[in-house]
Input
Amino acid sequence: VQLQASGGGLVQAGDSLRLSCAASGLPFSTYIMGWFRQAPGKEREFVAAIRWSGSTTYYANSLRGRFTISRDNAKNTVYLQMNSLKPEDTAVYYCAAQNGLAVPTNERTYDYWGQGTLVTVSS
Output
């Protein structure tokens, strides 16, 4: 199983960025997909998750309204659209896959992880 995250980079505050995570080696459409992030010196935290069909999504309360998660099961890809970025959004962003019915906000419920993509937001 491989999860390849991409789309990170250096942006200015207020800019938008879209992250992608391409999955292979698993039946993508049956997995819950999630995004987590880890800022320097901090623990990894939940960002967003999306269930199989894409009809149910979850967000960290502090990010709801600025971030949008979506998926394209035909392309085995999950996306994270990030708008109005702030310096505090600076982190390594990870995608993860969960095969089950567990609460998708808990990182310990995920089975597979990508390598992460760095997002840096300058002020």
